Amino acid sequence: MTKKKRTRRRFTAEFKAETVKLVKQGDRTMADVAMELGISAKSVGEWVRLAEASGESISEDERNELRRLRKENRELRMEKEILAKATAFFAKESR
Q1: How far, in Å, CA of 16 to CA of 24, rounded?
Q2: Over the stretch 62-81, which tens digit does the pLDDT of each residue have?
Q3: What is the dihedral of CA 31, 35, 37, 43, to 10 degrees?
Q4: What CATH number should be reported for the domain whose range is 13-93?
Q5: What is the model's pTM?
């Protein structure tokens, strides 16, 4: 008889955040929420502990805006670098 290898399930950050929200705002226990979602109570407890430790309370919209702003910041830094090199090049040319 061969043992079936269990694959590890991966959950998105959004799923974890929603699960933590269910635990914090409801009058249900972690075990009740875990059973309802079909996951282990240990996982839910870990997610709640990590959320409390990190103090992470940004929404998905804020997360998307942060991602967009970081990308825009990278692009602006690159443009600034290109302009600085072009300025130096043309300053040498005019001498």
Answers
A1: 12
A2: 778 989 999 999 999 999 99
A3: 50
A4: 1.10.10
A5: 0.51
